[in-house]
Amino acid sequence: MSFDDTLATAVETGVLTPEQARRVRAISTNSVKAGADAEDDEALRFISGFGDVFVTIGIVLFVSAMAYFLGGPGGAIGVAAGIAVISWGLAEFFTRIRRMALPSIVLLLIFACASYYAGLYVISTALGVTGSVLVPPILGGDEAVQRYASANVGAGLFTTLLVFLHYRRFKVPITVAAGAAALACTFISLVSAFVPQLAFSGTRMNPMVLVAGLAIFAFAMRFDFSDPERVTRRTDIAFWLHLLAAPMIVHPLVSGMFSGIGTLDATTAIGILALFLGLGFVAVLIDRRAILVSGLAYAGIAFAYLLRGTGITSAATPTTMLVLGAFVLLLSAGWRPLRRAILAVLPVAVTSRLPQPHVTSNT
After folding, report:
1. What is the pLDDT of residue 29?
2. What is the pLDDT of residues 67-104, one digit of tens each?
3. Could you tell me if 196 and 145 are in contact, meaning their C-beta atoms sit under 8 angstroms apart?
4. Could you count the other beta carbons within 10 Å of the beta carbon of residue 320?
5. Residue 258: other Cβ atoms inside 10 A
6. Confidence of residue 35 (pLDDT cuts 50, 70, 90)
7. 202, 255 in Cβ contact below 8 A?
8. What is the per-residue pLDDT for 15?
9. What is the pLDDT of residues 217-251, one digit of tens each?
10. b or e along 159-189 (b: 16 or more beta carbons within 10 Å of the residue's beta carbon)?
11. What is the pLDDT of residue 183?
12. DSSP 8-state symbol, 198
């Protein structure tokens, strides 16, 4: 068990208070590097050593080979169901006993995807969905779309149930995000089943994706508000939820402003950059970088377009990369001072529930 996991367990079991855990973490950080700034406020328990990488490689090789051998006697359903069972079995050792971070994440993702596809195959067969269940019936008419969407609703609910049981057993933080993703698919599929015209159309589905993303973002903030010191497992759960919500929020907002690079104009480009700056403000305010990172590519496209409008063509791409890189580096260097300045002018009722920038002494 890593040092962060030990602290999280100590807080959850009442051995330490969140404030005491934060002080212990600060002491540990300063003892490793005297005079350095405090540990990253958005620290991620992702890997505890190269052993995690080694085991993950073995898991990928083993599961891939098993998928091949399961495909003969069981077909697609046998592969999906078999991989779900195998990933759960491997988690019993590498997650529950060894507590290995990266293998636990990979095994959960394999389990969730295999469970979804197993449920989708079974329910699609029961509903009489024709063709490949992995390919939406775009040209099959409303009835075919409704059947396919209904199968996805069932698969989403089935996956949510299994992911919930997985979390009860193994307590892997990313599991909550996997369940939220399954519920988001369920919501989008449910709307598509009732309104087939919205299904499988990127621009028409944007409002549904945006609503789901905002709901997941709000769910993530509940975990953040419950652990402002970020010393329990709830902060890891919030991280993965923010990582899931960010593209679901950013993409619909930006794609709603223009349908492609060929339709971009100066006004839209400026609007995208303004949106990017707004996302940056939100990211700094809540101390989560995922939503800002999700907007980088769009900001780059908009900035490059404006550069070409000034006559800079051959150097537009490297100049854009230079400016965005400098922006990220400067924002990273001034992240905590900027957060202190923002939090200082906001109402205490709001800021008291948000993570506070840690200040450490150089002595």
Report:
1. 53
2. 999 987 668 889 999 999 999 999 999 999 998 999 99
3. yes
4. 21
5. 19
6. very low
7. yes
8. 77
9. 999 999 999 888 888 889 999 999 999 999 999 99
10. bbebbeebbeebbbbbbbbbbbbbbbbbbbb
11. 97
12. G
CA–CA distances in Å: residue 140 to residues 11, 38, 130, 136, 186: 55, 57, 9, 9, 21
Close Cβ partners of 236 (under 8 Å, ≥ 6 residues apart):
44, 45, 173, 174
Q: What are phi and psi of 37, to 5 degrees?
A: -70, 165
What angle (nearest 5°) sits at the alpha carbon of residue 331, between those of residues 264 and 210? Answer: 45
CB 173 within 8 A of CB 4: no
Distance of CA 264 to the CA centre of its chain: 28
Task: Give the residue among 250, 166, 241 at the shortest CA–CA distance from 206.
Answer: 250
Q: Tell me if 115 sits within 8 A of 159, measured CB to CB.
A: yes
* Amino acid in position 140: G
What tokens does 142 get? Answer: 């409303």
What's the confidence (pLDDT) of residue 76?
86
Rounded Cα distance between 106 and 212, Å, is 24
Q: Which is nearest to 200 in space by CA: 134, 249, 294, 259? A: 134
User: Which amino acid belongs to residue 52?
Assistant: D
Cα–Cα nearest to 252, from 290, 202, 177, 198: 202
| Residue 40 DSSP label | P
Query: Phi, psi (5° rounding) for residue 190?
Result: -65, -45
Q: What is the pLDDT of residue 270?
A: 93
Query: What residues contact residue 17 under an 8 Å CB cut-off, 6+ apart?
Result: 11
- pTM higher than the cut 0.90: no
Give the whole-angstrom CA distance, residue 152 versus residue 121: 10
